[in-house]
Structures are given as structure tokens and as C-alpha cells.
UniProtKB/TrEMBL annotation:
GO process terms (BP): defense response to virus
Species this protein is from: bioreactor metagenome
Signal peptide residues on this chain, from the entry's feature table: none
Alphabetical UniProt keywords: Antiviral defense, ATP-binding, Helicase, Hydrolase, Metal-binding, Nuclease, Nucleotide-binding
Family from the record: In the N-terminal section; belongs to the CRISPR-associated nuclease Cas3-HD family.
Recorded GO MF terms: ATP binding; hydrolase activity; metal ion binding; nuclease activity; nucleic acid binding; RNA helicase activity
UniProt keyword annotation of Zinc present: no
Protein's UniProt name: Ribonuclease Y
InterPro entries, A to Z: Cas3-like_dom (IPR054712), CRISPR-assoc_Cas3_HD (IPR006483), CRISPR-assoc_Cas3_HD_sf (IPR038257), DEAD/DEAH_box_helicase_dom (IPR011545), DEAD_box_RNA_helicase (IPR050079), HD_domain (IPR006674), HDIG_dom (IPR006675), Helicase_C-like (IPR001650)
Domain HD Cas3-type: 12-192
Gene: rny_11
Length: 713
């Protein structure tokens, strides 16, 4: 047996993992995923053991040696070499196992780097010859490994290997439209095994555990009217419209009967929800996870590739943003693994109204796909244009399939809590802020752009040096931002002295804070209503009927200043708001419909792989993603401070995540910045581009600001 320990899956530089260990870990996980999906567990095990058996090749083993340099024209794809062994399978096993092997790294066709099986068959005349070298010798070792796993083997000649290889080429050429469940099983298992190597056995017991949500069924109070409404309804999906503080989160969770995926609009807001659910389910065996990095994006032959991080398949509860499900819409690498994870689960889409136009189109497409793969979809919103509401009803299959819940006007009146004032500028409110500080009030100031929030924070720091203050937005190091949110909830929120908190949209959702005064830039009416919910939020018999002030600044005159929103929507919103009067919850819907009499739904079908109820991508293909990714101003990539690079490169995944700063691809992708080869392959920014109080400073994220003393010595 000792000779098998010399055959490696990963070399010394990547932690030295033997092939036997890697295959046994992937097999264990693949069985678990297949069992969850109702697939044949024995086939899943065989596919997992065979998927990397091509790594036994002496050519591959040579590439793991230290300082190995690939010679010009070098070509070896270990998954293609694994195909030489399919003749040991019976007919029932063969095609599922091929699905598990052939495309677990590359799309079989139109792969970004041209390395898919059909790409190579088309463009590389000697593809088989390059992979078969030394087969007579190394195949014996490969067969020994298979026998170690009690797989019945037989000697395989070069001619038999060639026949198997071209049988797979023919099979791949005949692939139909759809997605391969078997490919999803393998990718899900392989990614988790690679990320958690050595810890698979204890982890395996926790996979696909349905959470015990009885805690949420035991809480009732007239203060939270939704807690008094039964969730016992046979209709599959849910649509709840209710103001902030009505008990929406608990209601949506009570509607879940299986594993739960809880989605929120902003990366920052998912942290708070994760902490909340984790705390609530602390005494159960539920495995609650936070999907941290949206994606790992790397440049490969000049094309942008998005590889969804699938490290955490099988969680009982996963908290994430819809952007982290976007692979379903675009068929990007790993999308079949996401389907394997999410199929048949309960999906909560909270605050669904807050998305910008293109993102909204992606979310609607996600809902279509979720319905197609048997998910139960539960949607919560404080506000939503009727046009969008009706579109969702249509996608979910009509009113007969949806449990729709709204509060009566009488109950809505108890949620009136704000007097809204219009203001020309921040400067015109100096006296209002001065007076609030004298009265020891907690003041929340909200900007729509990170840069403006940073600038406002600097100005307030100069003007009020002795008042406690903080800045919070999405572009801090994740570990720091988590601490900032904790400070916001536990210190500033409970302060008995005056304090100033400057923020961006990240406060709109799921941050349970209740301040005394808000000054906010104008945002679309639905987002503003959500934003207002951070003021006078604490709901008790004493606070009902008490009102607090909100000042909304006039919209800018330039379209670029209005971003990420459309200027016309801001102008219509500002016009519709009361001035010096009570904001009435019962009138919120008509106000929203005045601002959004119609919605021009963005058509993303050119980019999407699912249209009119059908998959428009062939099995075993996946797309490289570029155009749409670049247009979205979402935090889709990570960067790290150059001063953290050495520590980042040697830290485990959880510690790496704390050092990462989420940013949009377009803010760093084309500036010639260095990248780390580790973790989620973040861009490396100059230390000058990150400030502990202000976060990411985009103007300094350029190579000329690198610290020379930290460069290679």
C-alpha cells in the first residue's frame, strides 16, 4: 500500500494531499450529495473515485514537482486521462460517470482557455497521444488505486483507452440542452473536499440537515402583527408585504419546511442576519453558514471567468445575496453544483424591491429558475411597485400557488412613526444637527455613494471632534466591517449620548437599529421607506403614536451624481414625499405606484441560459462571464491591502475572508493591479488605498501608489 502514498493529488506547495486521500474524501461527499438528490449512491461513489484517476499519470505527477516549468506547447488535462478507464464500468454506470469526469474543470466546448474536450478534439490533432504517454506503466498504479477502493478492474490496453476516449467525444457531441445533475454532484463534492481536506469526516455528518425552526413558531406578540398570523397554508410560495418591524423575518422563516436559503440585497446586511439566525438556532443541530465571497474572478486568456465559490454545499441555513446565485442565470462555472445544493429547498428573498434595474431582472430570472428546480419561494418586502408585484405573481405560477399576506389599514396606522422634511442641502441642516447633538440624540446620515459618505464623515469629524462617530459601508475589510456592524448595533444604537453614524445603503436592510434623527440623500421611494425604518424603529406600546424627524435632501442635477439610481426616479420620489407632514404607511403603496406607474423590465435573455421555462445551454457546457458582470456595480470581487498579502497567502480560508475588501470588478479590474494566487485570488491594492476609518479609497487603487519597500526584495 505504501507505494500508493507517492501518488499525489496536490503537491508540497499546496499541502501535499495523496490521490487516495482526495478520492476517498470526494467519494464520501459525492455519496452524500447523491443521496440528498435521490440519485444512485453507488454510481456517485464510482464517479468520484474515477474523476481524478488521470492524476496517476507520470506526466501529471511531474507537474507537481517543485519548480516545474511547463514547456512551450505543453498539454495535459488530468480529467481527460481519467476517461481512459471508463471501460471498467457497466452500461448503467458509464454515462453518469462520464458526466462527473469530463467537465469538472472545463466546459466541454467553448471553454475560455480552449481546453475543453471538444475544443481540443477540434483544434489539437494529437490530443489523445499527448495524454496517453507512459500509459502502460502508470495505468497499473491507477488500477491499484481503484482496487484499493474495491472497484473491480481489468488491464486496459492503449487501444481500449483510445476507444473509450473517442466514445466520450461522440457522447459529448450528442449532448442535449439542459444541465447535468451528475456534474453538479461531482463539482459540489470536489470543491468542498479540496477546501476542507482533512476535516471531511466530521463535516459530512452535518450536511443537508433540515433545520429545526420551532423557535420561530413559539414567538407571538401583538406588537409584531405578523406573529399572530398563521403560516399554515398549503400553497407553495409566499408573498408578504408589511412595514419594517412587523415581524416579517420570523413569518418568512415559519413558512419554511426544508433547508433554507435566506437572501438579502447587500453583502453587509447578510452579516447581521447570519448572526441573528445563528443565535436563534444555537441550541439545535442546524449548520448555519454565511456565503462570504461572492465569487473568485480570474483572468484566463483575457476572458473574465467567474467561478462561484461552492465551499459550503449542504448547509441547513445559508445566508447570501442573490448575486451569489447569479451563476444559475448565466450558466457560469459551478452552476450545476449550486442547483445540487439549492434544489427543492426553501428560498427567502427578503427586501426584493431594493434592486437596481439589471439586478432586478437577474432576481426575477432567479425566481423563474428556482420554480423550475422545485424550490419553495418566500418573498418579503416593505414596499413594492404593483407592476413588480404582479410580475412576481405571474412568475410564481399565479395567485393559486401563493400565500399572500398584507396588513389592514388599521394595523398599518400603528406603524406611522416619521415626520418627513425636505431640505436643499446638507449645509442647510447644520442647525438641525447642532440642536440634535445638544439633546444627546443619535443621528444617522445616509449617502448613496461610498465616496460621498467618506467625504461627509471627514467633514463631520472636523466639525464635531468630540462627538462619538463612525462610518459604515460595504468596502471595509470583511473582518473590520463585521466589527463595525457589531459596534453600530451594540454601542451606538444603545448610546445615551449624542453620536453620528454616516452610512450608505447598507443600513437599509436587516440592521436592527433605532435612531432619533435621519438626514438622507434622496433615493427611490421604496428604498427610502426601507431606510426610514432605522429611525424610531423600536416598537412598543409607549412608542406607537410617537413621531421622529427625517430630512431628505433634494436630488442632484447630474445623472452621475444620482448613481446608483436613475435621476428621474429620484425627482419623482422627491415630489411625492410629504414635507413637514406625517409619512402614512397606508398611503405608501399609492406613493410607490405614483413613482413607478410602469417598470421597463430589463431583458437579460441574451445573456441568460434559461428562457421561457427551458434551459438554453447544453449539458456539460458552462459559460465564461464577462459583459454583464462588468456593467454591474456590485461587490463581486475582493481585494486585499498589500501589507496583508504575506499573511493572506499563508492563512486558512476563514482568516483570508476577514482580510478581503469586497469591491466591484470595474473599480479594480482594469488598473493593472497585482493579484494573489491564493484564496479567492484577490486584487492587491496599495496600502494607501485603504484607511482604517474610511475603508477602500478608490483614487489610490493604482499601481503607482504601491509601497516600494513591500515589493520584491
Amino acid at each position: 500500500m505504501t507505494n500508493l502514498d507517492h501518488t499525489l493529488a496536490k503537491g508540497e506547495e499546496n499541502g501535499r494531499v495523496t490521490l487516495v486521500q482526495h478520492l476517498s474524501e470526494v467519494a464520501l461527499l459525492a455519496e452524500k450529495v447523491a443521496q440528498h438528490l435521490g440519485l444512485n449512491v453507488s454510481i456517485a461513489r464510482k464517479g468520484a473515485i474515477l474523476h481524478d484517476i488521470g492524476k496517476a499519470s507520470s506526466i501529471f505527477q511531474n507537474t507537481l514537482k517543485k519548480n516545474f516549468q511547463r514547456p512551450p506547447g505543453f498539454l495535459f488535462r488530468h480529467e481527460l486521462a481519467s476517461l481512459f478507464f471508463i471501460s471498467i464500468l457497466n452500461e448503467e454506470e458509464k454515462y453518469p460517470v462520464i458526466d462527473m469526469i469530463v467537465a469538472h474543470h472545463k466546459s466541454i466546448y467553448k471553454d475560455a482557455g480552449g481546453k475543453g474536450l471538444l475544443d481540443l478534439d477540434e483544434n489539437e490533432p494529437e490530443v489523445f497521444e499527448k495524454h496517453i504517454k507512459g500509459f502502460d506503466v502508470w495505468s497499473k498504479n491507477a488500477l491499484s488505486i481503484l482496487e484499493h477502493f474495491n472497484i473491480k478492474t481489468k488491464p486496459i490496453s492503449v487501444d481500449q483507452a483510445k476507444e473509450s476516449f473517442y466514445e466520450v467525444v461522440d457522447y459529448c457531441q450528442s449532448k442535449k440542452y439542459g444541465y447535468s445533475q451528475w456534474k453538479g454532484v461531482l463539482i459540489a463534492a470536489d470543491h468542498l473536499a479540496s477546501a476542507m481536506s482533512g476535516y471531511i469526516k466530521p463535516l459530512e455528518q452535518r450536511l443537508f440537515v433540515v433545520p429545526d425552526l420551532s423557535y420561530y413558531h413559539s414567538r407571538q406578540s401583538a406588537i409584531y402583527p405578523l406573529s399572530l398570523i398563521s403560516t399554515d397554508d398549503k400553497r407553495k410560495h409566499t408573498l408578504v408585504t408589511a412595514p419594517t418591524g412587523a415581524g416579517k423575518t420570523d413569518f418568512l422563516i415559519r413558512r419554511c419546511t426544508g433547508r433554507m436559503f435566506y437572501t438579502l440585497p447587500f453583502q453587509a446586511s447578510i452579516n447581521a442576519m447570519y448572526e441573528r439566525i445563528k443565535g436563534d438556532l444555537n441550541n439545535t443541530d442546524a449548520d448555519v453558514r454565511l456565503q462570504h465571497a461572492a465569487s473568485s474572478i480570474k483572468l484566463e486568456n483575457g476572458t473574465v471567468i467567474e467561478k462561484i465559490l461552492q465551499r459550503h454545499i449542504g448547509a441547513s441555513v445559508k445566508v447570501l445575496t442573490p448575486h451569489q446565485m447569479a451563476s444559475l442565470v448565466f450558466g457560469t462555472k459551478g452552476y450545476e453544483a449550486m442547483i445540487a445544493d439549492i434544489k427543492g429547498s426553501d428560498i427567502i428573498l427578503d427586501e426584493i424591491h431594493t434592486y437596481s434595474e439589471t439586478t432586478q431582472a437577474i432576481v426575477l430570472k432567479i425566481v423563474e429558475i428556482l420554480c423550475n428546480i422545485g424550490c419553495r419561494v418566500h418573498i418579503g418586502t416593505a414596499t413594492m411597485p404593483s407592476v413588480l408585484y404582479n410580475r412576481l405573481v405571474e412568475i410564481l405560477g399565479g395567485a393559486d400557488t401563493i400565500y399572500e399576506v398584507k396588513l389592514s389599514d388599521k394595523v398599518l396606522d400603528t406603524f406611522n412613526r416619521h415626520i418627513v422634511h425636505k431640505a436643499d442641502s446638507m449645509e442647510s441642516l447644520s442647525n438641525v444637527i447642532d440642536e440634535a447633538i445638544q439633546q444627546n440624540q443619535k443621528i444617522l446620515l445616509v449617502c448613496n455613494q461610498v465616496k460621498r459618505a467618506q467625504s461627509l464623515f471627514n467633514n463631520l469629524s472636523e466639525r464635531y471632534p468630540h462627538v462619538g462617530k463612525m462610518l459604515v459601508h460595504s468596502r471595509f475589510k470583511r473582518g473590520v466591517r463585521s466589527q463595525l456592524e457589531s459596534d453600530l448595533r451594540n454601542i451606538y444604537n444603545n448610546s445615551t449620548e449624542a453620536c453620528l453614524v454616516v452610512s450608505t445603503q447598507v443600513v437599509e436592510v436587516s440592521l436592527d437599529i433605532s435612531f432619533d434623527l435621519m438626514v438622507t440623500e434622496c433615493a427611490p421611494v421604496d428604498a427610502l421607506i426601507q431606510r426610514f425604518g432605522r429611525i424610531n424603529r423600536k416598537r412598543s406600546n409607549e412608542t406607537i403614536g410617537k413621531y421622529k424627524p427625517i430630512y431628505v435632501l433634494a436630488p442632484p442635477s447630474e445623472k452621475t451624481e444620482a448613481l446608483p439610481y436613475g435621476l428621474e426616479v429620484l425627482q419623482r420620489t422627491y415630489e411625492a414625499l410629504p414635507n413637514g407632514n406625517l409619512m402614512k404607511e397606508r398611503l405608501a403603496q399609492s406613493m410607490i405606484d405614483t413613482v413607478y406607474p410602469s417598470i421597463e423590465f430589463v431583458n437579460i435573455d441574451l445573456n441568460a441560459v434559461f428562457k421561457e421555462g427551458k434551459w438554453m445551454i447544453k449539458e456539460l457546457w458552462h459559460n465564461s462571464k464577462s459583459a454583464l458582470l462588468e456593467t454591474l456595480d456590485i461587490d463581486s470581487v475582493a481585494c486585499i491591502d498589500e501589507a496583508d498579502k504575506e499573511l493572506y497567502d499563508t492563512s486558512p480560508y476563514e482568516e483570508q475572508a476577514k482580510m478581503e475588501i469586497p469591491v466591484s470588478y470595474r473599480s479594480v479590474g482594469y488598473r493593472g493591479l497585482d493579484k494573489s494566487d491564493n484564496g479567492s485570488k484577490p486584487f492587491v491594492i496599495p496600502s494607501k488605498a485603504y484607511d482604517k476609518d474610511l475603508g477602500f479609497l478608490v483614487d489610490f487603487a493604482k499601481p503607482e501608489f504601491y509601497n516600494v519597500s513591500l515589493r520584491f526584495i
